[in-house]
Amino acid sequence: MILQNRKMRVTGLILSIIFLLICIGLSIVLGYTDTSIKTAINAFQSFDGSNEHLVIQNVRLPRALIGAVVGACLGIAGAMMQALTKNPLASPDILGVNAGAGFFIVVAIMIFSVNSLQAFTWIAFVGAALTVVAVYLLGSIGKEGLTPIKMTLAGAAIAAFFSSLTQGLLVLDETALDQVLYWLAGSVQGRKLEVLYGVLPYIAVAIIVSFILAGKINILNMGEDVARSLGQRTVAVKLTAGILIAILAGGAVAIAGPISFVGIIIPHIVRAFVGHDYRWIFPYSAVAGGILLLIADIAARYVIMPEEIPVGVMTAFIGTPFFIYLARKGAKA
Prior knowledge:
Pfam families: FecCD. The protein is mainly α and about 325 residues long. The protein contains 13 helices and no strands. The protein is globular and about 65 Å long.
């Protein structure tokens, strides 16, 4: 653990926020259309309607802000899921959030002929939330109630179920496949700020409540018996955490599609710096998640320029070696 006291952790968090702002600035400036910092400043101070100014205001600024918010949501959701399940490989994928949201999108396209990105946002948000509820209900069946292993298995089962249904439906309808394929890959390209505004109030509240709940998560991680002996209502804490995961992960999937590995990578990196205190893990995960997603999105613009690859593909490219390392480390342990 590098940051061993409060002063160092506060300093580190401030520096991380500054770096996040730098990444947002780079995301606004860098890309196929050649722009500079001066051009970006002029686009907001003295907009002239030029192509460069339009790209900065209407494309890159929304993309940068959405990337930062989605990364923050995935970072916190991943950290909270790993705390609840005590599974170092837990992420929004493990609870089937991505699969559930994707299934609801495909159903909306095929049955109700929905083709609006804003409609996709709310449908995916509802689908992700309902999926988390289903996982909690399945994981709570039995005498022992909700346990980490049961919740993990329930999430894996739900994910497999929805993924199979989605693939089956897409095989039957090529039109739906064309419409939803890019969204299923995970991308912040082409998203408008209006899409973010729709779910931002819920996400903001969920982030704040997550920070408040962090102390109770610390106690819960000491063991349920210890937590109960200290007067904690463990079921209420788990239920609240589940709702927060649904909002954060569901909101991220609703805005940008299913982006993998951010929720797995970030909590491990953060714990290496601040230890196992979730009062620090959650804020650091929010900032680091935004940084990782923005860096991945910037890199995705240059891999096959002038074309771009979805940021979900880039995070998978970055995260797969890390995932293999964690899996091998767990197997040895």
